[in-house]
Amino acid sequence: MKSIFFLFLTICSAGSVHAASFDCTKASSKMEKAICESAELSRMDEVLALSYKSAKERLSTQASGTLTKGQISWLRFTSNYCFVDYDASAVPASVANKCLVDTFGLRIKELDSTGRMIAGYKSFLMINDSIKIVRTEKYIYTIQQIYPQFDSVSEQAIKLNKFLADIEVAKLDDSRGSESYEVSLNTPSRDWLVKDVHADNMIGPYPESTHTCSVYSLGLGRVVRVGDVFVNSAWQRIARDVSVEHFKALASTEKDFPLEMVSGYEQFALDPAKEFQFCIDAKGIFVEGFLPHVARAFDGVTIGWDRIKAVLTPYAREQVQELIGR
């Protein structure tokens, strides 16, 4: 912990006579030593320090503090993760260095995106990572989260930040494995902000990758509900019909795809007061979760806007028209 805090303090300062962003004569942790022993990592460490310093300068004092918390989380995680295997054993120096190079490169890009304007707000990416290493039992468990945040103390921005930070972590089995959650934010219309969560759960014999969505309305000041989008429950029948057509057509062209694999259409059995949690684009509403993991490549159905336009509310039609026209 002491060496990580030292690295965090020194990373704030770009001026140094040493190759890295800190004094290599005082390097104590594995990550500090690896940086000092590699010309490539030393250069990247300097760039990382500059990117971090620049990112903080583009933010308000409050947002800069939040970014700092994320940077400390990233440092703690990286300084451990890149030096152990899944069985908690030490990895060769070449493996650790490659991990650091890849991780540093990605973090520099994330920091350089700080200040990007979204819906009229400055944004930055927040990191919330953790790692559990149990060498006696020979396992590690990791959880990685990254999500956008807005640099504003307005009531709307505070709601949006809570909306974006709300990530349902699985943690199905904390004995060994990994979970990662990456949140991206799309603006299909001036009123709608779509949160898209890509999750990878490498737990047990069947690793799973999914993505889920939810929509926030700037005008309504809250998450969009099913009743905001559809005038009545007729959309459920239409969505089911489109899905049935899709899988029947798929079964006719894919000899290894029996229709019995389709688990059902309960995704559409939603009360109007429930949150609208489908992914959307110019084509329509994308829904997945019909098939088991072994058939995941075939999962997912797009319900075209043309099929459901008659059951959209005037409010939803306005947003969809803007989305399609972009």
Description of the molecule:
The chain is α+β, with helices and mostly antiparallel strands and 326 residues long. The longest helix has 21 residues, at 61-81. The protein is built from 10 helices and 11 strands. It is 40% helix and 21% strand. Strand 5 (177-186) and strand 6 (192-202) form a beta hairpin. It has helices at 2-11, 30-37, 39-57, 61-81, 93-112, 155-165, 226-229, 234-253, 305-308, 314-325, and strands at 116-118, 121-127, 130-134, 139-150, 177-186, 192-202, 208-217, 222-223, 279-280, 284-287, 301-304. Helix 1 (2-11) crosses helix 4 and helix 2 (30-37) crosses helix 3. The chain has 3 domains: 1-114, no CATH class; 116-204, no CATH class; 227-325, Actin, Chain A, domain 4 (Alpha-Beta Complex), CATH 3.90.640. 28% of the residues are buried. The strands form 2 sheets. Strands 1, 2, 3, 4, 5, 6, 7 and 8 form an 8-stranded mixed sheet that branches. The protein has a 3-stranded antiparallel sheet with strand order 9-10-11. It is globular and about 70 Å long.
Task: For the structure shown, list the relevant keywords.
326 residues; alpha+beta; Actin, Chain A, domain 4; 3 domains; eight-stranded mixed β-sheet; three-stranded antiparallel β-sheet
Provide a brief overview of the structure:
The protein is an alpha+beta fold and 326 residues long.
